[in-house]
Amino acid sequence: ADQDIGEAIFSKKNDGSNMNGNTTVTITDTSYDAPQPSYTYTFNRPDNKAFAFAVQIQDSPNLPANIVALVQAAVVASFNGTDGSKRARMGTTVLAGKFYAPISAIAPTVNVISVLLNIKPGTPNLTNVTLGIDQFPTLQPSDVAVTLV
Asked: 128-130 and 23-28 as β-strands: parallel, antiparallel, unpaired?
């Protein structure tokens, strides 16, 4: 919560620290008797940036029946780093190539044709997206479009 971040800044920084950002909180110094001084701290909360993916895989009768859901889950897990890989982070470049291996690992019959991405509302037509240090990447399974070609 914003108040917790303010408390952490209060406990680590001195009063003369330069404060910038889009979020401001006021912290009261309870180590004093009344009247207790209050300090205002400003910090930056990143903007959530929702991603969209377009994945094409080769159609085959040997694909798992729930291939779309499996591809969506594999992309989201890799994006969030819950598959053991590095998650998409602020201030980094998200590369489409990162997602080929997790999709291919679903089954031996899965052949990836392409993976494209973009920040919504943009069309997923890029192979990489660079995020600013104030942009927090997010992804929902419903934002991973899977096409069998």
From this structure: unpaired
pTM: 0.83
Residues 6+ apart with CB under 8 A from 78: 85, 98, 99, 102
Contact in structure between 129 and 118 (CB atoms under 8 Å): yes
Q: From residue 101, how far is each of 24, 35, 52, 85, 112 by CA, in Å?
A: 42, 61, 18, 11, 9
Give tens-digit pLDDT for 77-98. Answer: 999 999 999 999 999 999 999 9
